[in-house]
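Regression check, iron/sulfur cluster case 491:
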Amino acid sequence: MQKHILSKSTFIKGQQCEKALYYHKHHWELRDQLSAAQAAIFAQGTAVGELAQQLFAGGVDCSPESAYEFRAAVLRTKEEIEKGTEVIYEAAFQFDGVLAALDILVKHPDGWRAYEVKSSTSVSKTYELDAAIQYYTIVNSGIDLKDISIVHINNQYVKDGPIDINQLFTVQSVKESVLKLVKDIPQKVSKLKQVLEQKEAPVIDIGPHCSSPYQCDFSGHCWRHIPAYSVFDISDLRTMKKFDLYQKKVLHFKDIPADYPLNARQWKQVNCELQNEKHINKPAIRSFVNGLNYPIHYLDFETFATAVPVFDGSRPYQQLVFQYSLHIEHENGEIEHKAYLAQTDGSDPRISFIQQLLSDCEDQGDILVYNIGFERGKLEDLTKYSPGHARQIQGLINRLKDLMLPFQQQYFYTPEMKGSYSIKYVLPALVPELSYQNLNISEGGTASNTFAQMILGEFCGNVDQAREDLLAYCQLDTLAMVKILEVLKGV
Ligand code: SF4
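Current build output:
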């Protein structure tokens, strides 16, 4: 058996961008480093795939020993089918130089059915194409497939006791779409094979395809001619417009034509940058600051989410609170700090989170958060989770105010904010001496993954150190708010 030329994933990569496929095969060294967040997503996908095997228990696993032994996996799959095995995991097939490894192949009374597992919550066009290349390879390998389905997560499932995998997963046939797509597969395969035989990479410029349907892992290489701060960073500018400017050879703000259709907010970003000017609306800031009631509570939540719910009464991918930091500023200037970080002993933290939050907050004073929709949404979830605390939690919700507002409304804008009103941009612009850079955990995604790994028993580092890092990160989030308000008060 010849070594395969394309796999299911390289076929999909080639459909997104032929240059990405070429680089993947011939210039692997140009690839971006896998981030910790991407690695966590892959690990989650693997875990979901293994769990879905229980939908058809007792199968034989044909996974190759290593990424280089797919031919052995193809032969093993063939042997198992001939032997009469009725459930095969990671069934591998090769046809016309294309290798496809299917998550689950099952022999039902009416014939073979294929199941591909995805850890997302719906079926996308890319998944249908992914199923089509599998269908093409499997059917042409001599298997009479009766159906092909995507198995995905049902985000309406609420855990109640042990995981009910029949409720957790939704099995959705995609055969109808696949039969339409499969007609074009031979021609697409042949085109991609030609691309791979070329001496040079295809000439393809950057475009919206670089991040759709997936973020391309050669972006660092292809986008290296784009300045660190460019038209691609104009706030809320649609992707098509960014590439319209790019195609007009406009990369720097100074080259944007004066009549280009940007909105007022976007022009403010551009002009403040070009003139190195701050924009400060003193009356609006004064009114915001004077409207705050002491003691001012600066509050920030951290959450985590898993594909497979961990606690009863929670859904797949539901964001669950596990940590908060609270600075309380009294009218006399005194500031105190309180914090909560859930245990990772397998118990549901939500009740202890609610109890400590209610006891840590004073009975009066505003509760200042950064991006009110997030904390309000989590508090509303908690009222549903614990109706006995609903009235008190609603009391907290009624006291919420948003420190993001003066920046979102551009009452205060400086060029250092680079068009963003995220606290990660606002803080260095207003309080440059306070930075996340020296922290071991310096952004919410890492905090969330760290806690999720600890609760799932998958964390490999020093747990005590990680807990200290989480506390330090969240504390800085609310200290940052204290310092930002100080600057606004100074205005
Ligand atoms: S970054 Fe864009 S142009 Fe470059 S290989 Fe990836 S998709 Fe293609």
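Comparison notes: The pocket of iron/sulfur cluster is lined by residues 17, 19-20, 23, 204, 206, 209-210, 216, 218-219, 222 (CB under 6 Å). The mean pLDDT is 95. No diff flagged against the previous build.
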